[in-house]
Specification:
GO terms for molecular function: coenzyme A diphosphatase activity; metal ion binding. InterPro entries: CoAse, NUDIX_hydrolase-like_dom_sf, NUDIX_hydrolase_CS, NUDIX_hydrolase_dom. Its cofactor is Mn(2+); Mg(2+). The protein has a single domain, classed as Nucleoside Triphosphate Pyrophosphohydrolase. It is 17% helix and 30% strand. It has 4 helices and 12 strands. The strands form 2 sheets. Strands 2, 3, 4, 5, 6, 7, 8 and 9 form an 8-stranded mixed sheet that branches. The model has no long low-confidence stretch (mean pLDDT 88).
Length: 237
């Protein structure tokens, strides 16, 4: 399923690969070069907006959740904070994720994302500058409606991990995620009650972790925004 480049090792994440799948080919940003410094990325995301109101999930979903896509400056440009979910959790055990969780009654998306991030990895809300929301998305397993919040910090804060929720936290350079040996995507064919048809699935293969599912979809949209391409305009298979 690769596009020709040797793939990095990835991690031990359990990926339920379907029988029917096909390579998606080159990434949307193929052939483009961008500035991955934090200032340049903040300038790119100014086109997006954030909704401070309290919201509920669409009727077909059981709950609304918020996650924080937190960027910080690093040696090789902006880096993004990711966590590996604890194996103690009931859903998505061991998967790579963003800090986040269920929105409590009366909370805004932003308030929930900041609260959950502080609870999971110890980042104080007052250090965080919120810039925008990315497109909401849903998951098959937990029936969640997820809203990603895009934010920055001026420098990487000291992390304090809650072992009940998080096994590991790491900062990953965005420039690393667009490497040919790191990113790949496929079309997966589904025949389920909740969804039938073809769906793009994105993967980021690190040296010791594999990012896929909702987290990879959020990263893919962010990288498309940074490169100035429309992540909805995927080529047909």
């Amino acid at each position: 399923m690769s596009t020709g480049s040797p793939r990095r090792a990835g991690g031990a994440q359990n990926i339920p690969t379907p029988t029917m799948r096909r390579s998606g080919g080159d990434p949307m940003w193929s052939g483009q070069s961008v500035d991955f410094t934090l200032d340049a990325i903040v300038e790119k995301i100014q086109q997006l907006s954030v909704d401070e109101r309290s919201r509920t999930a669409p009727r077909e979903y059981e709950k609304i959740s918020a996650v924080l896509a937190l960027l910080a400056p690093g040696e090789f440009g902006a880096e993004i904070l990711l966590t590996r979910r604890s194996t103690k959790l009931s859903n998505h055990q061991g998967e790579m994720s963003f800090p986040g969780g269920r929105v409590d009654g009366g909370e805004s998306i932003v308030e929930a994302a900041l609260r959950e991030t502080h609870e999971e990895v110890g980042v104080p809300a007052q250090l965080v500058t919120v810039h925008a929301e990315l497109s909401p998305l849903s998951t098959f397993v937990s029936r969640s409606y997820i809203v990603p919040v895009l934010a920055t910090v001026h420098e990487k804060p000291e992390l304090s991990i809650s072992s009940d929720e998080v096994d590991r936290a790491l900062w990953v350079p965005l420039a690393e995620l667009v490497r040919a040996d790191t990113f790949s995507w496929e079309w997966w064919s589904f025949d389920r009650v909740e969804f039938s048809g073809d769906r793009p699935m994105f993967f980021f293969h690190l040296d010791d972790e594999t990012i896929w599912g909702a987290t990879a979809r959020i990263l893919h949209e962010l990288l498309c925004v940074i490169h100035g391409v429309n992540h909805f305009e995927l080529p047909n298979w």
